[in-house]
Every structure is written in structure tokens, then in C-alpha cells.
Amino acid sequence: MIPVTDRPAAQTRVERFCREHPQAVLYDPTASVLVDVASGKPLPLDWSALTAIGDAVDSDTKRPYLLLAREDGLTLALADQGIVFAPSIASSGPIAGLPGACCYRDLESAEGQLVHYLRDHPGEPPTQHHVSLFAFCLAVVDGARAVGFDVSREERRLEGLLAELEGRKRG
């Protein structure tokens, strides 16, 4: 990671990454906003809050990503998956197997599994797997909020899913 002492150089690096990965992340320099392409969600980028920026390579996929470290201690990444951030267990509590990084595509996948269960398996009571999926969704949404995404839509969807899960549990 390189300290962000030269904002124009750092901004150029972010712009270049986004140009090279337009399927994943876009950047609007006039508004200083990143856009996660998969979700369409904007993320304001406060350059004064960035402390370091650095290139990295995923150890599994060998694909490049760009790390952005912030003065609040949070780090996010621009990657093939979009904007990547740490999940937060502030609301969910500990979750077995929780990855250290996630993105909106992960939320979409987990939510899709819950919706499938609720819509296509009527009358089946929820299992620990369904509760864990919901907790994972909550951790992703809390992580997204922590880095600055507006998650009000996602919170409403999760409230609906929770109500359905609780209704099934009561039978």
C-alpha cells in the first residue's frame, strides 16, 4: 500500500482500474462516486479520508484488484466482483465460515437462495441453514453500510425475508 499523499496520482490509479474493469466498477470523477456495476449502487469516495492505495492480486484467482484504505480503519477493494468490503457482524453476531470480504453479488446469491426456499418450498420450516443465510445477508448489508453505501432498500428486503422466516418458524 502506498500512502495517498498525491491525490491526482491516486485518482488516476482509480480511474485506470475502473476503465480496465468497466463490467465491475465505474467512477464518476466529477461527483467523486464509485458505482458497483452488479448492483448499480453508488458509493461516494471521500479522497480526504483515504490513507493508502495499492495494487494486489487475489491468491486464488490471480486476478488484480485495487485496495483503498481509509482513515477509519476500513478497507475496500475494487475487483472483478465490483466493490468489495468486509462483512460486519455487528447485528448478526458471529457466523461460522464468514468470509473476510464480500460484495453485492454475494448478497444477491444468498438472498436468492432464501427467496427460492420461501417461494418454492411452502410449508417447510426453516432450518439452521436458512437462519445462517439470513445472518450472512445481514452481515453483508451491515458491511456495505459501514463503508458508506445506502442500504435502505436492502434493509427493507431483509425485513420482509425475516418476517417470512419467523412466520414459518411459528408455523
Give an overview in words.
The chain is an alpha+beta fold and 171 residues long. It has 2 domains: 2-85, PH-domain like (Roll), CATH 2.30.29; 104-170. The protein is built from 4 helices and 8 strands; from the N terminus they run βαβββββββααα. The strands form 2 sheets. It has a 5-stranded antiparallel sheet. A 3-stranded antiparallel sheet has the order 2-3-4. A hairpin with a 6-residue loop joins strand 5 (50-57) and strand 6. The radius of gyration is 18 Å and the shape is elongated. The mean pLDDT is 94.
Provide the descriptors you would attach to this structure in a database record:
three-stranded antiparallel sheet; single chain; alpha+beta; 171 residues; PH-domain like; 4 helices; 8 strands; 2 domains
